[in-house]
Write a structure and sequence with these properties.
The protein is mostly helical. Helix 1 packs antiparallel against helix 5 and helix 3 packs antiparallel against helix 4. It is elongated, with a radius of gyration of 30 Å. The two termini are 21 Å apart.
Length: 205
């Protein structure tokens, strides 16, 4: 084909082919980078932020439980007791901040259903915790009546223990779910990178 063409025509044809190949290579690169950018953006602004928020909620819940257990100690120093109540307040502030962060992100499908289930369990435990604090206030006002302390211990180790466990269980399911979603997005990123490379090599071959 090229043998019968004049030099000028050959140069022009070669230039057109070079432009076409450059356009194809550029298009492949743009497609790959665009798709990879979307995946990375989703990971950085959504998936990993959700995992971090859930971790903060879990940490705050554990902190509340630890402080409650300390408040159940008979004869606890008043300074130490005040410190535990302050820790509970700070823990709830951390939890509320993390919950707001999570809810500010896109939540759809199975993730939405699981989050609603999580919040139902969370609010049930929160109510039991508030009942514990009311008992603690009553305990202090009574002059540290052992009978009220016994009520606190019974409440914390029975009803609240069960609601805490349920909230903790679903929260862990949420963490596992979102961690899996993040891992799947990382696989998509790897696949996109490999696909772009294979297509590019095929064009150049």
């Amino acid at each position: 084909m090229f043998g019968n063409m004049k030099l000028g025509a050959k140069v022009a044809s070669a230039f057109v082919i070079l432009v076409l190949m450059s356009s194809i290579i550029g298009g492949i690169g743009y497609w790959g980078m665009s798709k990879l950018g979307n995946v990375v953006d989703d990971l950085g602004k959504n998936r990993m932020v959700k995992v971090q928020a859930l971790g903060d909620i879990s940490e705050a819940q554990t902190a509340v439980k630890s402080a409650e257990r300390t408040l159940l100690i008979a004869g606890l120093d008043r300074t130490m007791a005040a410190r535990q109540l302050d820790e509970i307040k700070r823990a709830w502030e951390r939890a509320d901040k993390a919950i707001k962060m999570y809810e500010s992100l896109p939540i759809t499908g199975a993730g939405k259903a699981l989050w609603e289930k999580n919040m139902t369990a969370w609010n049930a435990w929160k109510k039991d915790h508030q009942d514990f604090l009311r008992l603690n206030d009553e305990y202090v006002r009574s002059g540290y009546n052992p009978a009220i302390l016994a009520q606190m211990q019974s409440h914390a180790l029975d009803r609240e223990f069960r609601s805490f466990g349920e909230a903790e269980k679903i929260l862990n399911e949420m963490i596992e779910f979102n961690s899996k979603q993040a891992q799947e997005q990382m696989l998509v990123a790897d696949k996109t990178e490999s696909t772009s490379l294979y297509i590019l090599l095929g064009v150049l071959a």
